[in-house]
Amino acid sequence: MCRLIETIQLLNGQVQYIDWHNKRFNESRFELFGINSELDLKSIILVPKEFLAGEVKCRIIYQKTIELIEFELYAFRQIRSLKTIIHDEIQYNYKYYDRSSINDLYSQRGDKDDILIIKKGMVSDSSYSNLVFSDGKNFHTPSSPLLKGTKRAKYISEGKIAEKDLTVKDIRKYGEIHLINAFLDLGRCVVPVNNIF
After folding, report:
1. SS3 string of 89-155?
2. Tens digits of residue pLDDT in 160-172
3. What is the number of other CB atoms lying within 10 angstroms of the CB of residue 80?
């Protein structure tokens, strides 16, 4: 049976965007394992003293029930370039613990910092984040991501970004790409479109 993971940002001991993580966590448990009872992750996460300061990554590994909760200090990594990788069969519609299929694609990046995955002609994600394309006015996120991330869902609900079908040819219509995930807000990790290869 597949194992899943929920990765949550803690800032000075405070759990961030917990409602969005609870939603994905409980929906995944219901859809994959038929578990109807919902859990509130905030009440389960007990932060050790050594992780009460700074930016911390909390990983919850689970199947029907939670198997492990672990913590580590978060280290921001600036991404400056992306290599386009085409793979029409890759599946990652749940946040699986096993990321071997994505890691295989990531290993093909050469001297670039990360990858931009193209599936069946459509732009999807990088190896670890959703993408938001900006032309200086509009913020569009691919309507066909591998994984619908929590930060992506939050920004869509707030009207900050909009879903759009984006093909490879559409990439050059934008000036930059924002990488977003639980730790990356809009503007924190930005790659110029000219740095996509």
Report:
1. CCCCCCCECCCHHHHHHHCCCCCCCEEEEEECCEECCCCCCEEEEECCCCEEEECCCCCCCHHHHHH
2. 999 999 999 999 9
3. 12
Architecture of the structural domain at 82-195: Alpha-Beta Barrel (3.20)
Cα-based distances in Å from 172 to 64, 91, 139, 149, 195: 43, 26, 14, 24, 11
Stated pTM of the model: 0.93
pLDDT in tens, 57-103: 999 999 999 999 999 999 999 999 999 999 999 999 999 999 999 99
CATH number of this structure's domain 4-73, picked from the four choices 3.30.470.20, 3.30.470.10, 3.40.50.150, 3.40.190.10: 3.30.470.10
